[in-house]
From TrEMBL:
Entry protein name: Aminopeptidase N
The protein's required cofactors: Zn(2+)
UniProt organism field: Candidatus Macondimonas diazotrophica
Lineage: Bacteria, Pseudomonadati, Pseudomonadota, Gammaproteobacteria, Chromatiales
Domain (Peptidase M1 membrane alanine aminopeptidase) ranges: 223-434
Gene name tied to this protein: pepN
Top-tier EC class: hydrolase
Family: Belongs to the peptidase M1 family.
Length: 865
């Protein structure tokens, strides 16, 4: 039984690594020679033995300080290599078997080539090493391989030498920047290369290269453009330039995650590189830009300054997500970026924070660190950085970041180091925000507004409370910055004067709620205003306000803050659902609510992208979070009924707006047009609009239009759907990435016998259980995006997913553990769903030989807290 690792047990590395030279020979078998130059750590006396991380290697030879050891002089147990204490050097020669590597950690095969993934602990599967992020060293890497099979040989840094020996060749790469092993990468493959260049602010030329499978060269343009935009943005906004002569992006089809920020040699899931208007949707374009930027931004936040230990993961991830979110908000179409980020936070992170897998942004213990690349570490972590950035204001935040880079460049540091550096120059103590890093759970912020006509005051009373989470029964208050305004009857913000101030100070303020109960009293408020709260979603909290439907519609119509408008719209839906859930009579959207949505749809001056967001129903996951424990089947059915109601009531308007946007060919118009089509295809109305939908499918000029139409057709089934699916398949049969969309749409469709369809998808020749994108497109899409069938009242959906997870456990534990997380929410359901879901967890937990990834997730999901 493995014991958890704990933040409290941190000790510095036993010695210093001066450099590493790695030689990898790709032949029938792969041999790796690791040469480490070591030095004592000042102030630490030598031990008798040194323990190196070394997983699943065949150890062929070990030499210490130049002396080759006989096998009795070292010990290897498959996980650690114990050797006599070295004075100056260690040399190991090992054999590895990448062809059997379906876990996609360490060195793995894909499409005839070899690639690596070392974060978090994959490097130990390549060579014995001190595989921990606080051990930094300059790397030199020499790769030898067959010229024909592996014409491309890449590693981090700059290529300094190459050579040819018969039908083999070699390349030597040097990365001068000391780095932890998790940022190591190599590639040996036969790939096409698309080149570009970037001139940095100081005039240095950087060669950019995008490596993809042959034939896909025309799909790299957007990734390269995004890269250049990100490079410029980091110079302009953070004063950070790129530091090597070469920046490479390599696309692979089999990858556990989105992408990896290896120094100078990013490896990407091809999903986040390849795009052409006929193969990728507007959303795909958007995600590519954001992932490319994210990995690029890591060069400073993560690579130049890295984490002391894996508990500090959010130091690089939360900060880098914050940076990529700001970048995306600055790009064309960025006006709704914040809304999309918050929608995602609410759907994923809030649920995580409310369930058995809840953990602080900086976890305190783990069994398997791969289980902590979570929405909490990433997205909530980004929210915490955002709160501190907003508290400081742009100029002081920039000074704080400059201080951070200055003070810690080349180091492996902690969250405390970051928070301290941020506040130093402006003299602001941000240490209160450390509670956000320590404490799990989403705070509930209840607010009540009281107007006193006699004294012309308006008091906002805030009460915060964070519910208990596993291992943390009692919570402290956290600082909650609330950006707010008070709107008058015409929607204009009032001047804000707090009691004790001698004059009004702006029309929007940020007030920080620090105590369990905090009151703010505003003067000169003649009539009750409508409070516009948490503008820009200024803190990651559940806001429980006492607004009426009329107040919310007032905000939806008039607020200048798009975020508040969106939150108001979401609340209107949630309130209607609340009513429908509790009453037996047919409840629905009130006429005023329908009029409110109509006014959004009719507002020709409104950015169509924003209109599309304001007209979106809350995500199913968000609803589950709001209504737990709930009958998932009923919840989704009611959600569909409300959609149908708004569809019917505004039918002619949806149709008119749809038609009016027909002449436009831009992402904003497509977003709203697709939203209109979605309502026109709601249950009850779709019979009349199938033809229109099919026409959109047939005549689409972009994947965005084609895919939305296909999804809506397939959701309802029938002949049109089948023939559209066949046409789509025929058109894209040889395009692996586009086929994923075809799989996904069918996995999410409500119509028909879902499980039979899923089985058929898995039998499709393009489906492989060893390709995570396919598994996510079928199993993941079904579990997360098909509530009616996944939560089928007989439990068959749960059993089907659990069977697939069981099949994945030994192939790819990381992916299996991630998928198993979908069952963690069993307590949010009412019986019998809750018991049926729990039964699948128990079944999985009983499987023999479970890896730590699964032991941790299943154990937590089942624990009584
Ligand atoms: N740092 C990687 C994620 C690694 C996940 C390891 N299980 C990608 C990113 O966040 O940029
Ligand atoms: Zn990242």
């Amino acid at each position: 039984m493995q014991t958890p690792k704990r933040l409290a047990d941190y000790t510095p590395p036993p010695l210093e690594l001066r450099s590493i030279h790695l030689t990898i020979r790709f032949a029938e078998q792969v041999e790796v020679i690791g040469e480490l130059a070591v030095a004592p750590r000042p102030g630490r006396s030598p031990d008798s033995v040194l323990v190196l991380d070394a997983e699943d290697l065949e150890v062929l030879e070990v030499a210490v300080d130049g002396r080759v050891l006989s096998p009795q002089d070292y010990r290897y147990d498959g996980a650690h290599l114990e050797i006599p204490w070295p004075e100056t050097s260690v040399r190991t020669r090992v054999r590895i078997d990448p062809d059997r590597n379906t876990r996609l950690e360490g060195l793995f095969p894909c499409g005839g080539g070899y690639f690596t993934q070392c974060e978090a602990e994959g490097f130990r599967r390549i060579t014995p090493y001190l595989d921990r992020p606080d051990v930094l060293a300059p790397f030199e890497v020499t790769l030898h391989a067959d010229r024909q099979r592996f014409p491309i040989l890449l590693a981090n840094g700059n290529c300094v030498e190459t050579g040819i020996e018969g039908d083999r060749h070699w390349a030597r790469w040097v990365d001068p920047y000391p780095k932890p092993a998790y940022l190591f990468a190599v590639v040996a493959a036969d790939l096409a290369c698309v080149e570009d260049r970037f001139v940095t602010a100081s005039g240095r030329e950087v060669a950019l290269a995008c490596y993809v499978a042959h034939g896909l060269e025309d799909r790299c343009g957007h990734a390269l453009d995004s890269l250049k935009a990100a490079m410029r943005w980091d110079e302009e906004n953070y004063g950070r330039e790129y530091d090597l002569d070469r920046y490479m992006i390599v696309a692979v089809s089999d990858f556990n995650m989105g992408a990896m920020e290896n120094k100078g040699l990013n490896i990407f899931n091809s999903q986040f590189v390849l795009a052409r208007p006929d193969t990728a949707t507007d959303d795909d374009y958007h995600h590519i830009a954001s992932v490319v930027a994210h990995e690029y931004f890591h060069n400073w936040t993560g690579n130049r300054i890295t984490c002391r230990d894996w508990f500090q993961l959010s130091l690089k991830e939360g900060l880098t997500v914050f940076r990529d979110q700001c970048f995306s908000a600055d790009q064309p179409g960025g006006a709704v970026q914040r809304i999309r980020d918050v929608a995602r936070l609410k759907a994923m992170q809030f649920r995580e924070d409310a369930g058995p897998l809840a953990h602080p942004v900086r976890p305190e213990s783990y069994l398997e660190i791969n289980n902590f690349y979570t929405a909490t570490v990433y997205e909530k972590g980004a929210e915490v950085v955002r709160m501190m950035a907003n508290t400081l204001g742009p100029a002081a935040f920039r000074r704080g970041m400059d201080r951070y880079f200055d003070r810690h460049d080349g180091q492996a540091v902690t969250v405390e180091d970051f928070v301290d550096a941020l506040g130093t120059d402006s003299g602001q103590d941000l240490s209160d925000f450390l509670i956000w890093y320590r404490q799990a759970g989403t705070p509930r912020l209840a607010v009540r507004g009281v107007h006193d006509p006699a004294n012309r005051t308006y008091t906002l009373e805030f009460c915060q409370h964070t519910p208990p989470t596993p291992g943390q029964p009692d919570k402290q208050p956290v600082p909650i910055p609330v950006r707010l305004a008070l709107l008058d009857a015409s929607g204009e913000p009032l001047p804000l004067r707090l009691s004790g101030e001698d004059r009004a100070n702006g029309h929007e303020r940020v007030l920080v709620v620090r105590e369990a109960t905090t009151r703010f009293c505003f003067e000169d408020v003649a009539v009750p205003p409508v409070p516009s709260l948490l503008r820009g979603f200024s803190a990651p909290v559940h806001l429980a306000d006492d607004l009426t439907l009329a107040d919310r519609l007032h905000l939806l119509r008039h607020d200048r803050d798009p975020m508040v408008r969106w939150q108001a719209a979401q609340q209107v839906w949630i309130a209607a659902l609340q009513q429908a859930m509790t009453s037996t009579a047919s409840a629905g959207l009130a006429p005023a609510a329908i009029a409110g949505f109509a006014s959004v749809l009719d507002d020709a001056a409104l950015d169509p992208t924003l209109a599309a967001e304001l007209l979106a129903l809350p995500a199913y996951e968000t609803l589950l979070d709001a209504f737990a424990p709930a009958d998932p089947y009923r919840l989704e059915s009611l959600r569909q009924q409300l959609r149908s109601q708004l569809a019917r009531e505004l039918e002619s308007r949806w149709a008119a707006r749809y038609a009016a946007l027909a002449g436009r060919d831009d992402p904003a118009a497509r977003a709203l047009r697709n939203r209109c089509l979605q309502f026109l295809m709601a249950d009850g109305l779709e019979v009349s609009y199938r033809g229109l939908c099919r026409r959109q499918f047939d005549e689409a000029g972009t994947m965005t239009e084609r895919l939305t139409a296909l999804a809506l057709l397939v959701d309802h089934g029938g002949e049109d759907a089948e023939s559209a699916l066949a046409a789509f398949h025929e058109r894209h049969a040889h395009d692996d990435l586009v086929l994923d969309k075809w799989f996904r749409i069918q996995a999410q469709a409500r119509h028909g016998a879902a499980l039979a369809r899923l089985d058929a998808l898995m039998a499709h020749p393009a489906f492989r259980l060893t390709q995570p994108n396919k598994v996510r497109a079928v199993v993941g899409a079904f579990a997360h995006g098909n509530p009616l069938h996944f939560h089928a009242p007989d439990g068959s959906g749960y059993a089907w997913v659990a069977d697939r997870i069981a099949a994945l456990v030994s192939l790819n534990p990381q992916l299996a553990a991630r998928l198993a997380g979908v069952f963690a929410g069993w307590r949010d359901l009412t019986p019998p769903s809750r018991d049926l879901m729990r039964a699948q967890l128990v079944r999985l937990a009983d499987l023999p030989g479970l890896p730590p990834d699964l032991i941790e997730v299943l154990g937590k999901a089942l624990a009584d807290n």
